[in-house]
Write a structure and sequence with these properties.
Porin, 387 residues, globular, 6% helix, mainly beta
């Protein structure tokens, strides 16, 4: 697996497998051809530049984990203000073709976030080629700027990166009440064109709206009843790259089918969302052959979350209160058998999601084998400006 420094973009190191290079080159070629081919029908290209800044303060008391003697409150952002996320986006559209790209800045580490071509095809199909979001969990398909809580639901955090390089195809049916998406990804995460074992990641997703379309990206929660349900599956490589103190890079690879279910309902200024994820993972060594096991047995993991938000009347739906419960479980035999999180958040929107102030508190409890539990606490204050 080859991971690129942020300033190198999509450069390909010598000897890297060709499959990633072909996907990256396909983005550029399709973009140039598609935009030029539309000149006859749409002579004007519309270019939009945007940006996002999220400044956050995190307070986390110093608490030693009794099992590891590690201070859970000790990290480089605890008890200080820091730039949680900075982003610059570019959109260029000509006719039915769009080119979208974005760079994100987090902890002084700029990196390419998205780069893809999106084309509207005949019969309602839409094709996306390049680096974009995966389909497995709705928690990561939703934008970071549209969250009722300061952070997304943790469902899906341990399944790997939420972005990858590949091809996505979408088709909407029955006046957009049914949305079907299929995707084939490289399977090695963002900004990575290498594919050591040649395995690809296959995903599919179906979302169905009930009664009336429910757009969860809209900041204001209405009074009319609206519902939606969705389900997704993924097969093959699901990487989760990390580095430990010895600079050993590991990856989690899904060895069977992963699936998720999501549901949401809005009514009388209340919004309820729930998501469930189940998958089986097997750690492998990513420094050499990615099929080499580390001697760790495959484990089944599942997580679910329930989130409730409310916008009180007579405040033009600027004020909102939200709470969420999250649980992540592992099969017996792991040191941490279960993790529970309960959060509460209060937010004030000055201009939709463009300017938003949020304060939230979280309690996280780890349940370990033998009935031992350990809790830590955290509070956060965040200012978001979306342009």
């Amino acid at each position: 697996m080859s991971h690129f420094p942020s300033h190198m973009g999509f450069l390909r190191p010598p000897g890297a497998p060709r499959i990633g290079q072909q996907i990256g080159a396909l983005v550029v070629i399709l973009g140039a051809v598609a935009l030029s081919s539309r000149a006859a029908t749409a002579s004007e290209t519309k270019v939009t530049v945007g940006g996002l800044a999220q400044v956050r303060h995190t307070y986390q008391p110093s608490v030693d984990d009794p099992a590891t003697s590690v201070d859970e409150g000790l990290n480089d952002t605890a008890n200080s203000f820091f730039l949680r996320r900075g982003r610059i986006t570019l959109k260029a559209r000509r006719g039915d073709v769009q080119l979208r790209g974005g760079f994100t800045f987090s902890k002084n580490n700029p990196r390419l976030q998205s780069l893809y071509i999106r084309a509207d095809l005949p019969r309602g199909f839409q094709l996306r080629v390049g680096q974009s979001k995966r389909l497995l969990t709705y928690a990561y398909l939703s934008k970071s700027t549209n969250q009722r809580m300061i952070e997304r639901s943790p469902v899906g955090d341990d399944v790997g990166s939420n972005r990858d390089v590949g091809i996505r195809l979408r088709r909407r049916f029955f006046k957009r009440f049914i949305n079907i998406q299929l995707a084939v990804f490289n399977g090695n995460g963002p900004n990575t064109l290498g594919n050591d074992d040649g395995g690809l990641l296959y995903e599919g997703r179906v979302d169905v709206h009930l009664l009336r379309p429910l757009d969860l990206s809209k900041a204001k929660i209405g009074r009319k009843l609206a519902m939606r349900v969705g389900a997704a599956v993924a097969r093959n490589s699901l990487p989760s790259v990390r580095e430990n103190k010895d600079d050993v890079v590991l990856t989690k690879e899904d060895i069977s089918m992963a699936w998720s279910v999501h549901g949401a309902i809005r009514w009388q200024r209340f919004e309820l969302q729930a998501e469930l994820l189940n998958h089986e993972v097997s750690p492998v060594d990513a420094r050499a052959d990615t099929s080499t096991p580390l001697g760790i047995a495959a484990t089944t993991e599942r997580g679910w979350s329930v989130q409730l938000a409310w916008q009180p009347p007579r405040m033009n739906r600027r004020l909102e209160v939200a709470t969420r419960f999250f649980r992540w479980e592992k099969e017996p035999g792991n040191s941490d058998t279960r993790t529970d999180e309960i959060e509460a958040c209060v937010g004030w929107r000055l201009d939709g999601d463009a300017v938003k102030i949020q304060w939230g508190a979280r309690q996280k409890t780890k349940h370990r084998a033998g009935g031992v539990s350990f809790s830590s606490y955290r509070s956060q204050l965040q200012l978001q400006v979306d342009m």
